[in-house]
Amino acid sequence: MSKDQQFPEVIFLDAVGTLFGVRGSVGDIYGAVARQFGVEVSAPVLNQFFFQVFKASAPSVFTETDPVELRAKEFAWWRAIAADTFKQAGAFDLFPNFDDFFAHLYAHFATADPWVLYPDVCPALERWQRSGIQLGVLSNFDSRLYSVLQALDLSTFFSSITISTEAGAAKPDSKIFAIALQKHNCLPEFAWHIGDSLEEDYQGACRAGMRGIWLRRNG
Length: 219
Prior knowledge:
By secondary structure, the chain is an alpha/beta fold. It has two domains: 10-21 and 115-214, 3-Layer(aba) Sandwich (Rossmann fold), CATH 3.40.50; 24-108, Haloacid dehalogenase-like hydrolase (DNA polymerase, domain 1, Orthogonal Bundle). Helices cover 46% and strands 13% of the residues. It has helices at 26-36, 43-56, 67-88, 98-108, 121-130, 144-151, 164-167, 174-183, 198-207, and strands at residues 10-13, 20-22, 115-117, 134-139, 160-163, 191-195, 211-214. The radius of gyration is 18 Å and the shape is globular. The two termini are 33 Å apart.
């Protein structure tokens, strides 16, 4: 495909906030699962502290290549965020066994239940697929993304999935974009990346030589 053609060879898409979003809020889900374990915490309070903790955390980037060790690192990374969230909310010590709660919470986010598929996603994916454009997911997510895409009936659209925990780099680092491009044997100038984050998706893609498209779902 030449540079002056309208469509790219590959379109990469972010996951959360682009393909699907959280049902309600993270605080709603954390609070609902906590209630199953006898702990009552306000959803807005949990949401506030979750985003504070999440933004202050180091990226979910690991050097492990062994799948078992990598999954353990992912689990531990998210456990630390959940634990700090409930500690900030003054509720951590209310759990008889926080590890039991977190194991349930972590598994819950690997299902379709906490997610909402945006209505414009499937029509767009179908249209691009019919046009012969290759599609890939490029996300700062963890390995649960594979099961989430399967549960939301999205897996068949994508010929590659690139996630930060496996790539050893997170957006906006150009390394993760290069890894995704290699999977399609595609030069950056022939690829687009669509995502909801100005810094991670749009600016990151542009710095990697791709066309970045900022999807502003919140207006």
